[in-house]
Amino acid sequence: MKLPTAQQQLFETAPPPWEIDDAECRWIATLVLPTGPDQEFDYLVPDELRPRLDVGQRVRAPLGRGDRAVVGYCVRLEHRPVGRRPLKAIREVIDERSLLSSAMIRLTRWMAEHYLCPLGQVLEAVVPAGVRGKAGTKLTTFLSLAPEVAGRIKEVTTGLKLSKKQAEILRYLAASPEPVTPVQLAHRVGCTQGPISKLRRKGLLSSRTSRLHRRQLAGPPAEREDNLQLNDDQQGALDAILEPLRARRHETILLHGVTGSGKTEVYIRAIQEVVSYGRQAIVLVPEISLTPQTRQRFRSRFGRVAVLHSHLTDAERHGEWQEIARGEVPVVVGARSAIFAPTPQLGLIILDEEHESSFKQDSAPRYHAREVALRRASAENVPLVLGSATPSLESWHRGATGQYRLVSMPRRIFDRPLPSVIHIDLRNETRDHVASGAISRPLHAAMKAALDDGGQVILLLNRRGFATHIQCAACGHVVRCPHCDIALTHHREGSIALCHYCDHEIPAPTNCPQCQFMGIRYSGLGTQKLEAEVRARFPDYGSLRMDTDTMQAPGSHERALAAFRSGEVQILLGTQMIAKGLDFPNVTLVGVVNADTALHLPDFRSAERTFQLLVQVAGRTGRGPKGGRVLVQTFSPDHAAIRAALRHDYATFAAEELPHRRELAYPPFGHMSRLVIRSPQEAHAREFAAHLGTLITQCLARHEAAARVLGPAPAPIAKLRGQHRFQLQVQGDDADAIRAALREATQDVASPDGVQWIIDVDPLDML
Ligand code: ADP
Ligand code: ZN
Q: What is the CB neighbour count within 10 angstroms for residue 23?
């Protein structure tokens, strides 16, 4: 066929589909690199590798002028014509099986887009290191008969004068339905490795190496527990989950159930239904809730439960991952990253304590497991359940606007009353000079009454250490960390002053480092000092402190809770670690030593955090027949968050807080992103932050995105680990336009030496 020149040229660059000669098509793999340039690269797939390659596997391929070998994830595999540019070929396939389904690759693409993070970095975060490194597996050789030998054993044996053993080996392999390892072969034929090696050297055997997984020993089987009789509220909540589940459609159910309303029992019943379909459920809980109590609770109802917590070794994690991927595990319980569990047939996702900030990852990709769960659930057409006694205002707002279905469980099991919460006004206590130490007279009296009555007490103080600052009474100098913009905390153990951000420590000073005055004062209250006071006030009772200082050894958390459960210890005191999830019926008093610790932080969520912490810790009492009460010491009894917490009144808290958020366009109204720029040189950080700010403003204008850029300003923690920190905050309504502008502004920007920066989309950490 003769074509006019113009058309001919057109066809040379892009022939129409009916003109494509199939012979010109080749298999082309698109790779994404875990590090390095954030772009996709096309490679030819050599014919011999094609049968072994699938989307979601990693390969080795040459990159750049020097053909440096790099590892890349195959994210696309197509049979299509090769363009004009010559393509390089893949050299090696690394993984035997795909690490990421197509659905998971779509999810990672969404994460990369949403959180403005390179796709390669997201892929590395989604596949656990133990899986990538094939931890706990052994490279093993498998032997079979060489193809040339098959069917000609007699001929070969006589022709090559093989020994009897060697002939026997060939016959065994000819009859074996699958390849065997050299050790298995020697064992079955009853020979040494000698004749096997000789056959291999003669080229009569084929060998291939592959990974063999060391099987994990499952934990001891848990005692089986029977289902409880659900009350009406629980049944209502269960029905709300079962409806979309049975209809095979996605819906998000926000389960607002007060502490002790029996949410876990509802989860378990919904999961039972999922399991009965042969599908899998993922349950996300905060890391701190992955206690033996939780594990036991799930294991007693479901035979096989994968529990993914941070103390797993790489090999254990890899083992669990493989079993989940094979569909052998019906229930996965885990912290944040369990949202990426490779369940082949997902049926349901549950996020318990959905308001917990630990669901947000604080390194790139800075994803929030709740948002990823929402994405995954909707893509896989399964329900998502968000449960909490104190939902995040983001979720509450989505419930109120109909994006989520709101289901309430406003009563406790057996209609047990919520504990009465009363406040103690520390202003009066201080003015009247009646208080000595951290425990006011009314709190002391309540503790004494509870203990005399055989009850147990929980005391919350959200500050660790002994004294929280060390100040000179003569010159006013406060001892600070030289690397971080923060006062050092006195720890009596070891007599040190410690930085709670970078662990920098110095011997606790006896005189002022500035003016040498001897009267340096240790003031402010930490859990260590509270513990000393409790021991002095209640010498006849056992007390135990739980904070990150005392809970470092593996298993210490479990041991502490066991001691409290057994009644060996009557007073449990500690940081927010003790505020969450614990279910001890004999706790008849909760004391909050200072409700205001988080109230005045420069963070727009400080009221919400304070409310959540108070309601959650109050929820630790009144769980048994003896009832319980809560005393809250505060300097701000009139603060809306504290007043609402005293009445367990979530709805009022939300109704009062949301208008403030709306007024200032804070989440859940409008989008927020935060950039933090840091450098050892203050001026470098400030200048680069200003440069980024200008670029962002320009790009926002180009995208016609109505948004404001706040800053650059010093971050609330202006210096951390020797780095000066500046921040930019971008807020506005049109999230997509803002994201596009931010992507454009930051795409090719190169920071000067020593300056580093991060971008945090939907930030939770504002310090
Ligand atoms: P939440 O998670 O809502 O705080 P839990 O699920 O921990 O509440 O339940 C509180 C307690 O009530 C647990 O000890 C649980 O075993 C018990 N419980 C839950 N549902 C029932 C029920 N229907 N009947 C009796 N006890 C129940
Ligand atoms: Zn420091």
A: 7
Going by CA atoms, what residue is nearest to atom 19 of ligand 1? 262
Q: pLDDT value at position 447? A: 97
Nearest ligand to the CA atom of 267: 1
Q: Which residues pair with 61 in a beta bridge?
A: 70
Residue 721 Cα to ligand 2 midpoint, Å, equals: 5
Pairing of strands 520-523, 384-388: unpaired
**What is the β-pairing status of strands 40-44 and 25-32?**
antiparallel
Average pLDDT of 387-411?
A: 97
**Would the CB of 570 count as within 6 Å of ligand 1?**
no
Burial 282-313 (b: 16+ CB within 10 A, else e): bbbbbebbbbeebbebbbbbbeebbbbbeebe
Query: What is the pTM for the complete model shown?
Result: 0.85
Closest listed ligand to the CA of 297: 1
The finding on whether 408 has its CB within 6 A of some atom of ligand 1 is no
Length of the chain: 767
445-472 average pLDDT score? 91
pLDDT band for position 212 (50/70/90)?
Answer: low
- Residue 23 pLDDT grade (very low, low, confident, very high; cuts 50, 70, 90): low
Average pLDDT over residues 708-726: 91
**Which ligand sits closest to the CA of 256?**
1
Which residues crowd ion ligand 2, with CB under 5 Å?
481, 483-484, 499, 501-502, 504
| Residue that is written with structure tokens 């040339």 in the block | 148
pLDDT digits (tens, 9 = 90+) for 163-197: 989 989 998 888 887 778 888 888 888 888 899 99
CA distance 333 to 349: 10
Model pLDDT for residues 416-452, shown as the tens digit of each residue: 999 999 999 988 776 665 556 889 999 999 999 999 9
Rounded CA-CA distance 117/364 in Å is: 7
Whether residue 257 has its Cβ less than 6 Å from ligand 1 = yes
Ligand 1 centre to CA of 129 (Å) is 36
Name the closest-CA residue to atom 5, ligand 1: 262
Q: Which residues have CB under 8 Å from 296's CB, separation 6+?
A: 222
Q: Within 10 A of 625 (CB to CB), how many other CB atoms are there? A: 9
Q: What are phi and psi of 416, to 5 degrees?
A: -65, 135
Count Cβ atoms below 10 Å from residue 654 Cβ, excluding itself.
20
φ, ψ of residue 491 in degrees (nearest 5): -115, 125
More confident call, 296 vs 245? 245
Beta-bridge partners for 307: 333
- For residues 128 and 108, give the distance between their C-alpha atoms in angstroms, rounded to a whole number: 14
Atom of ligand 1 nearest to the CA of 581: 4
261 C-beta closer than 6 A to ligand 1: yes
Query: 266, 260, 226, 291: which is closest to 625 by C-alpha?
Result: 260
For the Cβ of 352 lying below 6 angstroms from any atom of ligand 1, the answer is no
> Residue 548 C-alpha to ligand 2 middle, in angstroms?
17
Does residue 353 have its Cβ closer than 6 Å to ligand 1?
no
Q: Read off the pLDDT of residues 618-634 as tens digits, 9 standing for 90 and up.
A: 999 998 889 999 999 99
For 439-537, strand residue ranges (E) read 456-460, 469-472, 489-491, 496-498, 505-507, 520-523
